[in-house]
Amino acid sequence: MKKILLSITALLLVGSMVFAGGKKDAPKEEVVEFYHGFYHAESEWPPAKAMRDIYDAFAARYADGPVKFKPIPVENRYDITMAAIAGGNFPDIVDIGQPVPPSAISQGLVMDLKPYIDANGLQDAVGINYDQNMVNGKLYTVHDQLESRGTWYNTAILERAGVDIASMNTWEGFAAAMEKVRALNDGSYGYIAGQGSVMILNSKLATTAEGRALLNGALTKDGINSAAFKNAFIETARLDQANGSAHTTVDIGNMMADFNTNGIVAVLHNGVWNAGSIDASLKDAIEPAIFPGSVSISTASGGITIANNMSDAKKEVALEFLKYMVSPEVQEKIFLQVQAAPCNETVDVNALAATSSDVATKKLAAAIGMVADADNIVICLSTPWGQDVQTAIINALMECAVAGADIEGRFARLQQELIAIVG
Question: How many angstroms separate the CA atoms of 371 and 295, rounded?
Fold first, then answer.
């Protein structure tokens, strides 16, 4: 009896070892989580749905595992990322929307994408990301859409105000045009200030050699005290004060409907992608332009950023996603459906626009061409200078927009604030 029990025990032990071995050897299902900012309802912003469709199409390729891809739309993706970095971690993939935090790089939390891009010949596919986002010879982020910025005009308002649009190719002409718009006294106004004003300041810096030099790197104490920075700020603040404090916001998106839907703003300083947000009733009246002085702002900014501490299997899927997002197939959808500027330099937006009957798509192609052909193309100042610096400038400009505000005095305080930030 004892021998039988020992035999049964041995069989059970062998069986458990086989079961355990089988369980150990079974492929483990993994999930690559991708945080992105296209959370908006289609009725609020149709391009968000188009981007989610692009992500879902990639996820479908991995629906059966063993590695799945899960796109997660969130409004606070940057906050999630910063919280993860504070804990020594990083999301699997995040469309970060801002420059990669130096703390993530110094901790080795993010993958250098350059070797993969070089090995797969994707330099043209990632476009200006390859130069603008390089950090000490390494590339940590690729944005599939360029933040190409210029202006949009509501020609109906400007014509009603008696403005010759050609006269707005100088800042003096722009200021005179805004005076004429205010004189209409019909509920319309010149432009959305605050965040929009930083684009004015950014483009004013581009009109001088000293100003352009300031945008080539981090802001320094000498740059803060430079004549180029002071002149750009003072001139912008005077435009804002004349424009009125009721027309300021820290986020231009908060008042975008005034231009895109309500049609009461003469000029919008924003990206070329705004073409996709213009109401059908206004599309004929809205025209693209670049900043006075033949200036445009073209920035890769932060985009797809991949964690460095994933399994090889997850990294493979993450890198395939990067390749997918900059592919001609997806980049053409980004232009036609999302109505944004593609990063892939091989995509012919004019040829694509010629196949479309949508007025906004044709104007988007024209806007992209204008940005590319500007005499002075500069980067958005938040990239080399940092978000904290941009926020401080926005706050100062918003205070200057109040009637009677001491612009010179507020600039002097801003200088001290910025010196404290840059150290």
Answer: 8
Cβ neighbours of residue 380 under 8 Å, at least 6 residues apart?
A: 147, 149, 199, 202, 297, 299, 301
CA–CA separation, 365 and 351 (whole Å)? 9
Q: Which distant-in-sequence residues (6+ apart) come within 8 Å of 240 by Cβ? A: 193, 197, 248, 397, 398, 400, 401
pLDDT tens for 124-169 read 999 999 999 999 999 999 999 999 999 999 999 999 999 999 999 9
Strand partners, 82: none
Strand-strand pairing, 193-194 and 248-249: parallel
For residue 263, give both structure tokens: 């049609």
Q: Which string of DSSP letters, residue by residue, matches 85-140?
A: HHTT---SEEE-SSPPPHHHHHTT-B---HHHHHHTT-HHHHTTHHHHTEETTEE-
Which residues have a Cβ under 8 Å from the Cβ of 369 and sit 6 or more positions away? 349, 350
Q: Which helix (H) or strand (E) holds 266?
A: strand 265-271
Query: Omega into 73 within 30° of 0, i.e. cis?
Result: no
Q: Given this model, what pLDDT does residue 65 score?
A: 86
Half-sphere exposure of 221 (CA within 13 A, CB side): 4
- Tell me if 347 sits within 8 A of 329, measured CB to CB: no
Tokens of 379: 């980067």
Give strand ranges (E) for 277-368: 286-289, 295-299, 304-306, 341-342
Residue 412: how many CA atoms within 13 Å on its side-chain side? Answer: 4
- In this structure, what token pair is assigned to residue 221? 């104490």
Q: Are the C-beta atoms of residues 143 and 302 closer than 8 Å to each other?
A: yes
Conformation bin of residue 137: beta by default, left when phi > 0, alpha when psi is -120 to 50: left
pTM, entire model: 0.85
- What tokens appear for 280 in the block? 């059908």
Cα(225)–Cα(207) distance, rounded to whole angstroms?
18
